[in-house]
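Hey, quick one: can you model this chain's 3D structure?
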Amino acid sequence: MAASDRLTLGFDTSAAHCAAALVSGDRVLVQRLEPMTKGQAERLMPLLEDVLAEAGVTWGQLAALGVGTGPGNFTGIRIAVAAARGLALGLSIPSEGVSLPEAYADGRDAVVCLHAPRGQVHFARGDDIRLGAPDLLPDDWMAPLTGPAAETVAAATGRQTIPAPDLAPAIARIAARHAAPGRPRPAPLYLRAADAAPAADSPPKILP
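Sure thing. Here's the predicted structure for all 208 residues.
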């Protein structure tokens, strides 16, 4: 199978959803998006099984995995990243971490707008990610807006929006192009400290 056609499973639990897609190169075979505010840890693996079953594909036929690394919900990001690492190890295939700004930009020059806590927005253009109120978009970022919070920012700034791609297929397509042995393992993209008070015992670490 050519690299451009290899079967890649992409998924994300960084926000109030459980999303997954199976692609063959740039062609989307199956995709699912289930809104949920909790329960992603229990739902993710059955959802991935459902996606593979609908496509008539087995785990052993996968060539690569893609996973959303955030920014987003701390727990949700860790659920998906840990799953990707474990699956990649068990299946002996590469896994690729894909940030939400990269996935939503989808190769375009755009300002990706993501919902953040307390009514704020994460603005991202390329690798530059900033946090602020919806009306505090940097004046010199003149590219169109996209992403889940784009309409909120457009209402506050009058800026133009462009449609966002479906998240899980975008993650899977990017992973299909880049995942390879020797690439860095997926790691959570955290932009702020957690709101919760730290536990008495140190939490387990995700190794680099």
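One thing worth noting: DSSP finds five helices and nine strands in the chain.
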